[in-house]
Amino acid sequence: MEAKNYIESGKLELYVLGQLEAEEQIEVEKMIAKYPEVKQEVDAIEFAMEQYALYHAIPPPPDMDRMILDEIRKTTLPLKVSIYEPKIKKLRIALVACAALLVLSLVALYSTYDKLNNAKDQIVSLNLEKEKFTTTVTFMKQTNADLQKIANMRDDPDWKTVKLSGTKMDPKAKMVVYWHVTGKHVLMDLSKLNLPVNDQEHQYQLWALVNGKPVDLGVFDVKPDASQILANMKGIASAQTFAVTLEKRGGSSSPTMNQMIVAGNVSI
Amino acid sequence: MAPKIAANLPEEELISKLKSRDTTVIQVLYNMYSGALFGVISRTIQQTVVAEDLLQETFIKIWNAADSYDSSKGHLFTWMMRIAHNLCIDKLRSKDYKNSIKNQDLENNVDFIDEQKEVTFNADLLGLKDMVNALKPELHSVLNMVYFKGYTHVEAAEELHLPVGTVKTRIRMAIIELRKHFN
User: Is A58's CB within 8 Å of B39's CB?
Assistant: First the structure.
């Protein structure tokens, strides 16, 4: 009954003619959805108006369709886009893959860089150890050679061992000098040396007393860590006494007597 | 490259092509309906050049607004016709158009428009005459004011000095008459 009244109200015709306000339009749409007979009536009205319009058709001027299509194709490119879409998709995937690879490469590069730095550090520390080792080996060779020399001295009667002992200046001081009379060699045994460490302004000077006259045999420093056992000094052919004085750095031409720290006579 | 375009297609196919943005559907719609749309447009807007522009605009709007078409609310043609109709009404109410009509009125007498009309109607004069003869004049004049002249049914009532209810009834009766002929 509601449907029949609605059909007869004339609203459906106005609906098809686009004569209704938005609210009424929605109302009609609801009625169409609700009553099949209302829908059927609207269909019939639409069909009639369509036929009426076709009956009154006026052909547009020729080429109008071309103009319209050109206009539409100019403003919208959905078909062309759909041609490129798979390509764009592929490119997108490639882009993502590239980005992922880039990230991986950066991580690998960073890790390699880190390892390289570690390796460099290791090389540096290994080099340091190697140097230390070399130094030690050199020191040991030197020491060995010196010890061999000292051992050989017993078989050679020309070698004389001169023990120098402390004076008033430092009674605890002592040292040993080896002297080869014919070869004119003078060696100090640093392993048996006990002198206070000298400062930067002063140096020890070794003297030989030859017939009461002091002869310079060279200057030397006393360091806390000696790198060798034997130290070569200037040679001399004859001497009765060896002595050491503390002099200004570089040595003096004659010994400062009150700075004599050790002295020892050559035993015959 | 371009596929062969059908002269006409069933409504469901037209709708699906329109929704899937297949531009070939515009050619089909044009083949099927451009005359019907142009018939209404050129009766509402009597300046031929303007009417042609509006037909073009109608098809462009059909294309651009395809997403908003809802088949549960009516036939595709009804929707297309509504687009044409609304564009005509907007044009009729625009200042430019009102001015151009005024100028024409000053330059020409009323006969000019009638002549124009006759030329426009010539194409299907025969068919129209049959229709006009078949419909009761007081019914068809109201329908035609609304369908072909861009009047709202309320404006038509004012113009004809009739109550709105009477206009509604006459429109309904006119369409019932039409249905007898076409259904």
Answer: yes
Using the Cβ of A62 and the Cβ atoms of chain B, whether some distance falls under 8 Å is answered with no
Q: Which of A52, A60, A67 sits opposite B38 (nearest CB)?
A: A60
> What distance in Å separates the CA atoms of residue B183 and residue A103, rounded to the nearest whole number?
71
Using CB atoms, pick whichever of A14, A51, A60 lies closest to residue B34: A60
Distance (Å) from the alpha carbon of A10 to chain B's nearest alpha carbon: 6
Q: Is A78 on the interface with B (CB under 8 A)?
A: yes
| Contact assignment for A55 to B128 by CB distance below 8 Å | yes
DSSP B15-62: HHHHHTT-THHHHHHHHHHHHHHHHHHHHH---HHHHHHHHHHHHHHH
The two structure tokens encoding residue A82: 């759909």
Give the B window 67-96 contacts with A, CB below 8 Å: 72-75, 77-78, 81-82, 85-86
- Reported as a single tens digit per residue, the pLDDT across B57-105 is 999 999 999 989 998 888 999 999 999 999 999 998 888 887 777 666 5
* CB-based contacts of B75, cutoff 8 Å, min separation 6: A43, A46, A47, A50, B11
Helix-strand-coil split of chain B, %, nearest 5: 80, 0, 20
**pLDDT tens track for B95-105:** 888 777 766 65
For residue B134, the model assigns a pLDDT of 63
Mean pLDDT estimate for chain A: 89
What proportion of chain A, given as a percentage, has pLDDT over 90? 49
pLDDT in tens, B114-161: 444 444 444 344 455 555 556 677 777 888 889 888 899 999 999 999
Residues 6+ apart with CB under 8 A from A158: A180, A181, A182, A183
Work out the minimum CA distance from A25 to partner chain B, whole angstroms: 10
Q: What is the mean pLDDT of residues A124-128?
A: 94
Q: Is the pTM of this model over 0.95?
A: no
Q: Which chain B residue has the Cα nearest residue A11?
A: B168
Say yes or no for a CB contact (<8 Å) between B148 and A56: yes
